[in-house]
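REQUEST ID: PR-0412
SUBMITTED BY: lab tech R.K.
PRIORITY: routine
TASK: structure prediction, single protein chain
INPUT:
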Amino acid sequence: DVQPGSTTFDLYIKEIVREMTVKSGQKCTAIRRALVPADRIQAVADSLAARLAQIKIGDPDREGVRMGALAGLEQRDDVRSRLAELAKDNEILFGNTAALEVIGANAETGAFMSPVVLACKQPYATNAHDVEAFGPITTLIPYGSDEEAVELAALGKGSLVASIATASPAVARTLALGLAPHHGRVLVLDET
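STATUS: complete
OUTPUT:
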């Protein structure tokens, strides 16, 4: 029910970006799979790209830097290898994995990484349900109905948190009841 340009849509985009960039996405509760109504995938991708393009990466002590390094070079290499695996089934929509501009640090010797947004074409056949990159990566997964969203979420085999962005109490109820058996916590996000 959430449309591009609405307050709840903007909160949803802001939440994904925050989860991708805080601690460089290295949180157990970070958003790895973003289930999106199929007719809004492009709007979500465009909005995420616009916000993520503004994120300054580098030394967190520097003015304007919003995202620091991963835990170390080994972690960066692991996230890159997981990204390569995800890219087999999903298209990279945003993120430059080859060249990275950082502020107050060295992109070559530091464990810095661009946030990356992917999108899958086949929601039931994507490896995003099984491959987790413990870094600033999320995959957009299209769905056609609330019931399908619950089915797709369950393919992740459980998670700590699920977030629902809706302005409809009926949609919130349907999704929360469907997601609860597979998640430790369900957050319902709306403009209130």
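NOTES: The CA atoms of residues 109 and 151 lie 42 Å apart.
REVIEWED BY: pending
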